Amino acid sequence: MNHYILDASFLVVALLKNNPKVTEKWNIASNEVKNEKAILHSVSFFLSETANALRYTLEKEKAIVYLSLITNLPINYYNLQPEDWTVILDWSYTHNTTVYDTSYHYIASLLKGTFLTCDSKYYQKAQKEGFIELIK
């Protein structure tokens, strides 16, 4: 079973079809989910980040439509525990990254999954941890 951890950068680009490679990866992942070969995961604050990305990318009416699509996706929201935050903060200092971005990556490492992102700055800093795929 594949485990895909989604961040806002990946999903917004995938759904808006702004990048063929990202759309292709999304189609692969979503087909695996439909065929019960993969599970989608994200952090508990994923919808806040995604709604914010939509707010600054689209007009209000379109943003509402896309947010509705996203909230209906079969995403498992991982609830980080107090002990997880210590590791996340450590990784964040080690790689000079945000705690937000590091949270997605950390979940991927816990689940032995793949963190799908379009954030090349984060990827460059933290790729040595593994469990991450940059789609550009």
Automatic annotation (TrEMBL):
Name of this chain's protein? PIN domain-containing protein
Question: Can the keyword Magnesium be found in this entry's annotation?
Answer: yes
- Entry keywords, A to Z: Magnesium
